[in-house]
Amino acid sequence: MTDAKTTDAQPNEAESRERLSRRRMLGFSGASLLAGAAAGAGLDRMAAASTENEPATVAAIPFHGANQAGIATPVQDRLHFAAFDVITDDRAKVVQLLKDWTAAAAAMTQGHAVGEGAVSKVAVAPPDDTGEALGLPASRLTLTIGFGPTLFEKDGKDRFGIKAKRPAALVDLPHFPGDKLDPDRSGGDIAVQACADDPQVAVHAIRNLARIGFGVVSVRWSQLGFGKTSSTTPDAQTPRNLMGFKDGTENIAGTDTALLGKHVWATAADGAAWMAGGSYLVARRIRMHIETWDRTSLREQEEIIGRDKLEGAPIGRTKEREKVILAKMKPDAHVLLAHPQTNKGVRILRRGYSFTDGSDGLGRLDAGLFFIAFQRDPRTGFIPVQTSLATDALNEYIQHVGSGIYACPPGVKQGGYWGETLFT
Asked: CA-to-CA distance for 199 and 144, rounded, in angstroms?
């Protein structure tokens, strides 16, 4: 990323390319410097929309628009998701923070530094930007914001005069069978999803927003993710999750405006006019019992999922994208229970990521799926589908340990700010 002004301390173009090339070859794993962040792992991948010979602007995704980027956008390879608690009762400070965050997000997504950059004119003052993304391209960074139920109301209190604007669709998620939710990895007043093809760019974005928010918000919890497990580009290779199976074969395409309009984007007619053009985000941290899964026979694995492991073909078929024959599957197969035909045509847009956060102290890998789904209404999206999965054979190998639901407002107009339709 480039500073707002040029300094001798910045790497030149050749140095920037060399650094990017080294990191792509060596991979990346690390821990966020923010409290509550989890370690990321896995080999770094070549960015799909950025090469060493492309300038930063080529890999930049527009920030402004009718809808927020990072929803229907082609899924990037890396994630840094953070949930914040608002620690002030001053509405004006919250609004100002959202304006400051918007300016920073608009700059970072275009490959620029925050404010005056990492090398300011006044050496005795902290710089505006933390600097770890100096010389790196935008890497298709997107930043997507959402507001949790507790921003509108907490302990019966209307915190910021917006209680009446809480959408009916922004429900408190029910307790699902098998849930073992950690309150320290759940909830939050505001959530920000940072996605990029470079892990350092994603971490840099969340780190700077947390720094800007000092005194107004604090990080409640965060999660690093790698290796996208769902795709919004069905013409591309379907990614695999940590169980080794292709995931998201029938996900909604980011170019399918009809399905997006029906299942993803909220409208004024849905009951909350300020959410028109927005969407509802459900995040679930799903721990996989990797060691148990790895001792399960291939045949049983395939019957549990409902697809073959090599091609990703539905049971009874030979090719991945052939029509699913539900009658060929066991009644507790994951694909059968999650399929739209089983759920009255319900569709959700998934943007999940794998995670590994070291071990649990008992020699078992703390790894799994950080599930992210966007939908027009969780009451007709995630909730009925997850309820259907109560008898899923896969439940023996997974457990939901973290959760969050957020209302993601529409996109930002030029000169506007995140949440303007809510706070105006």
From this structure: 16
Q: How many Å apart are CA 157 and CA 96, to the nearest integer?
A: 22
Q: How far apart are CA 421 and CA 312, in angstroms?
A: 43
215, with CB counted inside 10 A (0-12, 13-18, 19+), is exposed
For residue 94, what are the contacts with CB-CB under 8 A and spacing of at least 6? 86, 88, 160, 216, 423
At residue 177's C-alpha, the angle toward residues 173 and 181, to 5°, is: 60
Ordered DSSP codes for 142-184: EEEEEE-HHHH-BTTB-SSS-GGG--TT-PPPPPPTT----GG
Phi, psi (degrees; rounded to nearest 5) at 327: -65, -20
- Helix (H), strand (E) counts: the chain: 10, 9
CA 149 to chain centre: 18
Please report, as a single letter, which amino acid is at residue 29: S
Average pLDDT, the chain: 89
Tokens of 110: 């275009």
**Higher-confidence residue: 171 or 5?**
171
Alpha-carbon span 229 to 227, nearest angstrom: 6
Structure-derived torsion over alpha carbons of residues 105, 109, 110, 111, reported in degrees to the nearest 10: 100
Question: CB under 8 Å to 34, separation ≥6 — which residues?
Answer: 82, 206, 207, 210, 219, 222
Residues across the chain:
424
* Ordered DSSP codes for 347-360: --EE--EEEEEEE-
CA–CA distances in Å: residue 62 to residues 8, 14, 68, 138 = 29, 26, 10, 11
Taking the CA atoms of residue 348, residue 349, residue 351 and residue 352 in that order, the dihedral angle to the nearest 10 degrees is 20
| Structure confidence at residue 2 (pLDDT) | 61
pLDDT at 160: 98
The tens digit of pLDDT for each residue in 32-73 reads 334 344 333 333 333 333 333 344 444 899 999 999 999 999
Q: Which amino acid is at 65?
A: G
Question: What is the amino acid identity at position 362?
Answer: L
Q: Return d(Cα 61, Cα 139) in angstroms, integer.
A: 9
What's the Rg (C-alpha) of the chain? 21
The whole-model pTM stands at 0.88
Residue 213's Cα: distance from chain center in Å? 20
